[in-house]
Amino acid sequence: MTDDDAVFRALADPTRRQLLDRLFERDGRTLTELESGMEMTRFGVMKHLRVLEEANLVTSRKDGRNKLHFLNPVPIRLVHDRWIDKYTEHRVSALAELKTQLEESA
Amino acid sequence: MTTMTTTTTQVYTVFIKATPEQIWEAITTPEFTSKYFYAARIELANGRRRAYGPDGELWGDEAILEEEPPRLLVHGWKGLYDPELAEEAPSRVTWEIEGQEGGVSRLTVTHDQLEGAPKTAESVAGGWMYVLSGLKTLLETGEPLV
Predict the structure, then answer these.
(1) Using a CB-CB distance cutoff of 8 angstroms, which residues of chain A are in contact with residue B11?
(2) How far apart are the first and last CA of chain A?
(3) CA-based, 20 to 30 A from B13: which of A29, B44, B95, B97?
(4) Which of B5, B15, B136 lies at the smallest CB-CB distance from A25?
(5) ipTM of model over 0.85
């Protein structure tokens, strides 16, 4: 599995996207904090966090006895650079070409 | 969309197909940093980490707190490139580089002690993401992100 595969797989689940959104709102949370308000068992949340950590979308740090989870947006940026930029750039240049053609024929 | 609450610690990680030595060189040599770090020329000298903008203006000048090439660099942070950020209290940046199997290294950047620098915290949040993805692209392809 490539890095991109792991990112897309991790993002393809609503619960995992919800966990990322919650870390975006407030970063550096414990499992207990993340679990509260989720309609899911602690074990379920742990499983989803593990998938997010494997995709490097979440990084964890020890803080005394607590394990804090941090949102790591770098892989999303890399997906953006590799995939999204490529296609939007093409569309922009296609529009620019269309404009040139229309103006030339006018 | 919910706005991000400013927190006092930010952690970013990226896996790069490069040796720890190559990554160290890329984060401590002005010829490299100018290709991915907002064009800043960054150098370590006399116990300080200095960053210069494209026209030679001073963007950062902070003490190096720990320096263990090629695996650990800790330095202060204060954004002299923006008057509002320059007024805030200094924070701290830690670069950790760990070699992994298969010629890959894991780079972790922790920006903490941001208690007295909420504007800096907000400003660097998108910045680190941009810098680290640019660094990875540069080291893996030899081409800077445009």
Answers:
(1) 28, 59, 61, 70, 72
(2) 51
(3) B44
(4) B5
(5) no
